[in-house]
Every structure is written in structure tokens, then in C-alpha cells.
Amino acid sequence: MTNTSTTETNPSQPSGVHSAALKEHSKTALEILSVSMTYPGNDAEVLRDISFHADKGEFVTFVGPSGCGKSTLFNIVAGLLAPSSGSVIVDYKENTGSPSDKIGYVLQKDLLLPWRTIRKNVTLGPELSHNRHIDAQQITELFHAYHLHGYEDSYPDQLSGGMRQRAALMRAMLMNPEIILMDEAYKALDYPLKIELESELLDRVKDSGQTVVFVTHDIEEAVTLSDRIYILKAHPGEIVDEMQIHLSCNSNKINERRLAPEFNEYYERIWKTVESGIRQEKR
């Protein structure tokens, strides 16, 4: 199966606008061209002919079942893994198989170093890059913005899961990446905290103009956060649909966005596509 791109302005009316047309309206921050992946020693394809783009300031989400290669795709985008074929273009420059300082990566696990204070964890990126100055005032403002002021000298095991996840996001944001990759970043959090952090994330990235590429199994999360959604099938991972999301809600608060009248139609469309892929795989 080849990639199918169906861009929508209304959940019930596919418009068939090709992704290239979108580039006329905003700068492309990230472009993935015909990426396929087969691990050495294994004949099974993990990813097949994946192509997508994310524009500057856009929130793009990937949704799909287990085994669709989302994490592998993210490792390729981050430059941590070289694909078997295809290209990764960051800010119009070839970046395949090489980490870029324009990209920040936030995982489901916060990966904070237990022997370092929260401040030291947050400033790890600038320390490792050597050529980045650590601005004390910026650090102070960041701790206030993420509601962690007063915990600078605490250690990770002294913080709740949500606070640690905030610290991990701060660590990525401090490097001021143009593109933020988030792989199931809120999956392990309880629902109220998850909603709070998602709302905060939308506030941050909409204000900063940063691009987010997000992975989730949660269709509700995808619809409420995203400007555009790519739907993947598994074995091998392929894009089977692309959908633009337009909710008639100007708020960045997740609970309010889920009350938008278009929400259920988008949800049903995505669920039917994912479910269809699962049924076909079982045949």
C-alpha cells in the first residue's frame, strides 16, 4: 500500500488538497521523504515509504495501533537512527541519520538523571553542547513558567511524575528547538494532570511558534491538540490517511476543545480508519 493523503477542512468533506499546497502558506520546518526501515538481520519492514511534512508553528500528530513503527519513525526524525532509505529534511537541509540542534525530543519516560538536581537536569543540554550560554535569568523565568519554582535544588525522586515530566519538557525547551518531538509524553500521567499539561503545552507552543510532532494512541488527545493528523497502519507502518483539524474553539484548554461540535466527527473518522486497518491485519 502506498501513502494516502486526504487533507480535510471539514470531517465529513474530504478536500484532497496535496500537502505541497500547504507549503505555499507557511514555512516547512520538517519534511520526511519516502522513508522506509528494515532492521539488519530482519526481513520484516517496520516502515514503508513514509512521507510527511510539518510547517512552522504547526502541531502534527501520528495516531496508529501498536506495531505501526511510530517510535522508530521518531528516532529517524530525531537523527538517532538512519533509515534504510529516504531522507529527513530539517529547515530545508538534509539531516538524515544525524541529530539536529533544531530538534528537541520528549519521551514518555522523563529520563532525568537521579544524581542531578532538577536545575542541573534542565541545564544538561547547554552543558553538553558547550557553545551555549546558560542564562540564569532565563532559567528562573522557565521554572516560574512551568510551576517548578522552589524545586530547583530538589532531586527527581522528590518530585511527582507530573513535575518530572514538566522538568523534561523544560530541558527540551531550554535548547529553544524549532521542532519538538513528543513520543507518548503524557501517557503515564493521571487524567487531570494530563489535561493540565496538554493545555500548558498548547499555550507554550502557540506563543512561541514552535513546531510539534506528537505520537499518541489516544484519539481524543490527537484531535484536541492537533492542527493535522496522520493515521498509520501496522506491519509495515504506512500512512493511510491525513486529516486537517479545525475545531471551532479558540481556547487552548483541552476540556473546552473537546466540547467543540466537530470533535465527535473527527474522532469517529479516525477511529474507523484505525479499526479498519486492525481488521485487515487480522485477516
Write the SSE topology.
Layout (H helix, E strand, L loop, with lengths): L7 E3 L2 E2 L4 H4 L5 E11 L6 E11 L3 E5 L6 H8 L7 E6 L2 E2 L8 E4 L11 H5 L1 H6 L6 H10 L15 H14 L4 E5 L7 H18 L2 E6 L2 H7 L2 E6 L4 E7 L9 H4 L5 H20 L1
Parallel strand pairs: 5-10, 5-11, 8-9, 9-10
Antiparallel strand pairs: 1-2, 3-4, 3-6, 6-7, 11-12
Helix pairs in contact: 8-10
Could you please describe the fold and organization of this structure?
- By secondary structure, the chain is an alpha/beta fold.
- The protein has a domain at 8-97 and 213-282: P-loop containing nucleotide triphosphate hydrolases (Rossmann fold, 3-Layer(aba) Sandwich), CATH 3.40.50.
- Helices cover 34% and strands 24% of the residues.
- The chain is built from ten helices and twelve strands.
- It has helices at residues 19-22, 70-77, 118-122, 124-129, 136-145, 161-174, 191-208, 219-225, 254-257, 263-282; strands spanning 8-10, 13-14, 28-38, 45-55, 59-63, 85-90, 93-94, 103-106, 179-183, 211-216, 228-233, 238-244.
- A six-stranded mixed β-sheet has the order 8-9-10-5-11-12, with helices on both faces.
- The model is unreliable at 1-9 and 11-25 (pLDDT under 50).
